[in-house]
Amino acid sequence: MSVQLTHTQTRMLRPKRSIRVFAPFMGFQDNMGALFRLCDAMGVEEVIFGHDIDLNSRRLRKAARSSITALKTRVSPDHKFEIESFRKNGGQIIGLELTDTSFPLQDCALDIDTDILLVIGHEVDGIPKEILQILPQCYHINMYGQNSSMNVVHATAMALYHFRSLE
């Protein structure tokens, strides 16, 4: 019979590429906490927010657990500058948004040994038009139910897992 592993028994894998998540518009504390926990689990190097966040928020801390201290974070309110800087440094920039020109996530091929900046949107409004216009590529999650959207952290989890599975 299988037995759940403890924290000390869990074997952590080492990521082969650097991934940063840029969440310039995320606003809900529970989603921010879930994003911290997810990014720690997926070996994300850094999470970049577009505005100050309250790290003492009970909702954020409850969802994040101890991942707040394990993950590098910073604030960059100049969204366009952040994206352009990453591009100039040779990184691959990927938007996660359903648009009229986006491709299914499973079609996303990653450049070997290239750092990734994954840009995610606001929980309700997604990625604004002015940011979409400067993203070189956007991918979406194919959906099979009745709803036309999904939670931004759930979509981010699927994208990060896809990226790690390509290593």
From TrEMBL:
CDD domains: SpoU-like_family. Residues 29-161 form the tRNA/rRNA methyltransferase SpoU type domain. GO terms for molecular function: RNA binding; RNA methyltransferase activity. One of its GO terms (biological process) is RNA processing. Pfam families: SpoU_methylase. Keywords: Methyltransferase, Transferase. One of its GO terms (cellular component) is cytosol. This is tRNA/rRNA methyltransferase SpoU type domain-containing protein.
